[in-house]
Amino acid sequence: MDGGGEAMQVEAAPYCCSTCDGGEVAARKLARRSKKTRSLSTSSASSSSEYRRTQSLHGPSPVTTFGPKACMLQNPHAVMHIQDPASQRLTWNKPPKSVLVIKKIRDASLLQPFKELCTFLTEAKNLIVYVEKKVLEDPAISGDENFGAITKKFCTFREDLDDISNCVDFIICLGGDGTLLYASSLFQGSVPPVMAFHLGSLGFLTPFKFDTYKSQVTQIIEGNAAIVLRSRLKVRVLKENWEKMARVDEKGIILTNGDIESSRKTVQYQVLNEVVVDRGPSSYLSNVDLFLDGHLITTVQGDGVIVSTPTGSTAYAVAAGASMIHPNVPAIMITPICPHSLSFRPIVVPAGVELKIMLSRDARNTAWVSFDGRKRQEICHGDSITITTSCFPVPSICFRDPVNDWFESLAQCLHWNVRKKQNYLSSEEDEF
């Protein structure tokens, strides 16, 4: 029994990554393990429940050696941290002092909840409230004299003009899933924790109900909540602008009138749901080349292609026939839109790869691209779209925990696996 217990202690030794002296530790473990025999005693089984399984930096399995001699070559640049969803909890280094309130525009049903929440945050919690300037320009808000005294304490900003990334401690969204997507687009770098109230249409990403907002907001301020890190896509669009430039000599005389020069323009986006490349208004099939880490893997011929995050897998991608992926899975999903091939099915690739989409040379028409349904633009020959997983996820605050919230949304919003149950057969009916 003692040998089995000691062997279990050796198995429970902490994992050493490439930054520490893992080789010496591994050698000592192998030396001690060679002196022990395998034991399936009850003491070993009871010991296994006393510690939490180790978390590997390379994947869900803590094993870093394979057989007696094989091991994985250490590559610090390719290391991915796989976290247990239950271990992701919200904590504050300092008590939060500012909050950004995002309200769905042109929705009269949100006026009263917005006023109540802002009053509570300003007066009861003494927080600095940031509100978008166009929200306060609503006549129903600007014309309210009683609420006017509260609005004077607000800090306002304008989209694409003011940077509030270092001013906001956490975010509260009032609306639907589109409101959360909009909040994500405001932060091209690190995103503060997001608390989303279900006051919109679908509400797949908004788990909180507004009925008990005071106690829920208080709990978040105290730092007692689970979070799910929703990965985003870092998208870089490189556009070739071809222009005819006239060459002029030193005396101002025009030498040529038709030289074509190219100027490159690069724009970067952070995308929470998906990047959609489609054929736009053209009646022809879209024809784009898809590269993975520099290798051409396929040419997409059809209505287009969707590159989505696990969060976006339950949006446009699932409507196009893709599977649904939990937000904690590090992956990128590629889904064709009405492909001109019956064998072209959605695929899932690792989160660390770099995808590149370009218009094929023999494409009959241009393509169009949009990012979370916004910033739609045309893609021409020579342009490219580079996509990879962003280093800045969206920390979405959970109502209960990442697993329960996700399956609750599947059941309530998408009616996943909802069907009539079969009737129970009695013993008498079984005889016939």
From TrEMBL:
Q: What class of enzyme is it?
A: transferase
UniProt-listed GO biological process terms: NAD+ metabolic process; NADP+ biosynthetic process
Instruction: For the region Disordered, give the residue spans.
Output: 31-63
What residue spans carry the Low complexity bias annotation? 39-57
Gene3D superfamilies recorded for this chain? Probable inorganic polyphosphate/atp-NAD kinase, domain 1, Probable inorganic polyphosphate/atp-NAD kinase, domain 2
| Cleaved signal peptide residues | none
- Keyword list, A-Z: Kinase, NAD, NADP, Transferase
The keyword ATP-binding is assigned to this record: no
> Under the GO molecular function aspect, what terms does this record hold?
NAD+ kinase activity
EC number per UniProt: 2.7.1.23
InterPro entries according to UniProt:
ATP-NAD_kinase_N, ATP-NAD_kinase_PpnK-typ_C, NAD/diacylglycerol_kinase_sf, NADK
Family that this chain belongs to:
Belongs to the NAD kinase family.
Protein name, please?
Answer: NAD(+) kinase
What species is this protein from? Echeneis naucrates (Live sharksucker)
Lineage of the species this protein comes from:
Eukaryota, Metazoa, Chordata, Craniata, Vertebrata
